[in-house]
Design a protein that fits this description.
By secondary structure, the protein is an alpha+beta fold. The chain is built from 12 helices and 9 strands.
């Protein structure tokens, strides 16, 4: 019972630690996702600002210069007129800075189905995303966790602003496109688009390695601290349980063990005799009860004093314990009266045991005080109840004392 209690506490400790470990691991993943989304938000904000600047500030200036004749009408330079070109190069510079600082680089791509520059050609996965956005205008973005080469990334895709009228100057019929654009890219790729078409997506992959690594370091440190804290709590609980067990054991000992002779007391005897009767009745086994009473014990106390009397009680209890089998139980019923419950034993062997105890007591005190004992022995009859069984062995003890003491008497049915 006590062992199970400690196992239960240990089990709870392990379960709590595992639950905390799982929750912390989830928090690490949540933290990594949060940081990745912060980065993504910055990228999207920068991309939106860059696109707005090119379309609303830079291009109108270039077109005005053309109209004013300060630039020739066929002027085109991707470095200042192509959002795709500008954005790609800005992020290439940014990734170069990341590389120099030994930080993981970002995957940034304006992926298109029909780009002029093959660097912007959408892969099969990105083509499906573009198709999805064109077929369902209610879908505004796509986000997922992807794994590549055993590394995790936050993938994000968002459609580039659908074609506006200003976009068609470079993306409708080639005959309307700037001559320098035709000369640079040809008249096949990037044309024949319509207003409202989503020709490209912003395709971003943000590595989660650095966030997960930092989170795992935090996770490990915190887990160690929690483990030590839980272990301390566990140790305190076990310490308190052990102290409680010691107190309970002491209380149990006080309630079950005779404090003078250190053998079982009357309370345990009453419980054991009932249990033994039920057990041998169910299993059809033998049960024998021996009762012992020290002869003239009151006179011994009066003559030699209670201290000597106590020593005699202790010695006789010791003799009885040494004479019985390991699993037999010896009891002090009160005063100078003792009992032994014997299971799975015949009457002949029980009588020999009782006689051996009597002789040992007589022999031990033959030259000093001449202490003797009388014993009654009775075998349980399965027709009897506990009260009658106890009365029969008590009758046998009374007969031993009535017929001269210092003898063993077997109870025999009349």
């Amino acid at each position: 019972m006590l062992f199970n209690k400690y196992v239960f506490v240990t089990f709870i400790f392990v379960v709590v630690f595992l639950v905390i470990s799982v929750l912390l691991r989830k928090e690490v993943e949540t933290y990594a996702m949060y940081e990745a989304n912060v980065k993504l938000d910055r990228i999207l904000t920068n991309q939106k600002a860059l696109h707005s600047y090119i379309e609303n500030d830079l291009k109108p200036v270039i077109y005005k210069l053309k109209d004013e004749g300060k630039l020739y009408q066929k002027f085109f330079d991707a470095k200042i007129l192509s959002f795709t070109y500008i954005a790609r190069n800005v992020y290439e510079i940014e990734n170069q800075i990341y590389k120099e600082n030994k930080k993981p680089h970002l995957y940034y791509k304006l992926a298109a189905n029909n780009p002029r520059n093959d660097l912007n050609k959408a892969n099969a996965f990105e083509e499906n995303i573009i198709k999805m956005f064109n077929e369902n205008e209610n879908i505004k973005e796509y986000k997922d966790i992807v794994e590549e080469e055993d590394k995790e990334f936050l993938y994000f895709a968002k459609p580039v602003t659908p074609n506006k009228k200003s976009c068609l100057k470079c993306h409708s019929d080639p005959k309307y496109a700037p001559q320098e654009l035709i000369e640079k890219y040809g008249d096949v790729k990037g044309f024949h688009e319509k207003i409202g078409d989503i020709r490209a997506i912003l395709s971003i992959k943000i590595p989660l390695d650095s966030e997960l690594q930092y989170g795992n370091q935090y996770y490990t440190k915190l887990l160690v601290i929690i483990f030590i804290a839980l272990l301390l709590v566990y140790t305190i609980i076990i310490y308190l349980l052990r102290n409680l067990d010691k107190k309970n054991n002491k209380l149990y000992e006080i309630s079950t063990i005779d404090q003078l002779t250190n053998i079982y007391n009357r309370r345990v005897f009453d419980k054991d005799i009932h249990t033994s009767v039920i057990e041998v009745t169910r299993e059809n086994k033998n049960l024998v009860l021996i009762m012992l009473d020290i002869d003239f014990f009151k006179k011994i106390n009066d003559t030699y004093g209670h201290q000597v009397g106590d020593a005699i009680l202790i010695k006789i209890a010791e003799i009885m314990q040494k004479s019985t089998r390991e699993y037999d139980r010896v009891y002090r019923l009160g005063g100078e009266e003792f009992a032994i419950i014997l299971k799975n034993i015949d009457m002949e062997t029980s009588l020999l045991l009782a006689e051996r105890i009597r002789e040992e007591i007589q022999s031990h005190y033959a030259e000093d005080k001449n202490i003797t004992a009388s014993l009654g022995v009775c075998e349980y009859n399965k027709k009897d109840d506990v009260t009658l069984f106890y009365k029969k062995v008590d009758d046998a003890l009374y007969m031993a004392k009535d017929t001269g003491r210092n003898r063993v008497v077997e109870y025999k049915e009349s």
